[in-house]
Amino acid sequence: MLREILSVARADFKERSRTVKWLVVPVVLAYFAKLVTVDMSLVIAEEYTGVPTAGWYGAMLSVMGTFVILIFGFVIVGGSLARDKKTNVDQLIATSQLSNISYLGGKIISNFLLLASITITLAILTGVTFLIQGTGKIDVWALFSPFLLGTLPTMALVAAVVVFFESNRFPQKTTGNILYMFVAIWFIYASSATEGFIDVAAINIFRDSMGQAIAAQYPSFDGNNVGFLYTNSAEYLNPFQWSGVNWTMRDLLSRIPILGVSAVFFGLSYLSFNRFDSTDRWSIPPLKLPMIRSSSSKDSESDLQAGTQIEPNSTDTEIESLSPVTQSGIKFHRVLLSEFRLMIRGQPWWWYLACVLAFVGSLIPSTNALRSVVIPLALLLPLSLWSELGTRNKKYQTEELVFATSGPNILLAASYVAAVLVGFILTAPAGFRFVFMGAFSALFGWAVGLLFLPAAALASGVWSGQSRLFEISYLLAWYFGPMNDVLPLDYIGASNETVTSGITLLYLVLTIIALTATVYGRRMDTRSG
Question: Where is this region: Disordered (predicted)?
Fold first, then answer.
């Protein structure tokens, strides 16, 4: 069994590590290391910051890297089981003697190896950053031990949770991305705010050690409110010297429960995995009704059984004389209605309930709450709808049929307007409230956000042919932009500073650019087809 597990892990790791996505990972990590260490400063207890020693860099980047990978773990390494199903490997797995334990265990190990490679790359970049920007001697253990003892155990948890999500029917694709992200954010909050809870990023270990160092160097510090935040200016902060964590046996034992939780998720994956069975084991069996046949169908069936020869239809010989397909009779409002119905139909019941709750939540009177919480959360609901824009024709191979009967530009316009309408309906009360209250800055940000998101989805779908690119980009922008006040990613104008600084106007320009790129990309598709 161990050999089977390692064989599955090796094959899956080799396949996924050779994709283009993993060539982009070092570039993203390099920018992340620069953003955390150079562009921003970590603040401890609202007024202290560490001297950039090897231990400080190691702890700071390992904690932030763990949080980011934990939140976006499903996006980073998810899709392994779906890829097997897409490439028809699932049929080989379902009929082979490979056990579920070997298959799922190999997938978890493959996920862990991919995440470990990211962790190692981030650790190396941290060392390079310290050589360029840091002070003091190189303490290899203080620099790399946070990644070894703090980050890697959490990567095992992420690897197991991702396989658990993929082995279940409910939390898959876009739903899995969103649900996983919310669970990860809650897990991070609980681990940092609750004593005795599983410390996913060893943040409590670093916080206690840093608090002791601050108290030793600043007697006025009482040891309370040791929280973390980032700032763009470190001039008013008091620096303190910290050489890293002195890892004790208690600290090491506190990392073991993470591996235990990983094993629990592996067990849950084994119990819920249906071995690519297309039937739903939890659904009610369909009601079988007797087939009702008309007299004409019975007559035709009897004729076939009697060997009666059926004469071909005389109109079959006149197919060549049919008039060519034209687009003169197309009505835009009909295409728009069809696109809107196609977009919102077939969703699970809880999605419609969530849309009703989002609409009701947009009625709250607080403008700040609407801009920073309600609208960003409400506009996550159409993510699965928007991510399919521009991809359905390639996915279902209907380019020739759709382009010949409806016209590519008409279909693009209808898809875009229908997507904007979905976001508008969900958050319409908020927009009307902005108008009545004279909050034109919030109104402008809301309107631009509604126009930009579907445009970006269309451009991404037409040029990439996949929905995953937009899903990843949108979730990243949502988390760092409106939810964490990173102004360049605030696509909805959640703060007045975003609008007054011209960032919202820039997103309006990007909307026009995205729509232009979409039209050009679709024109290339029609010519190549």
Answer: 293-321
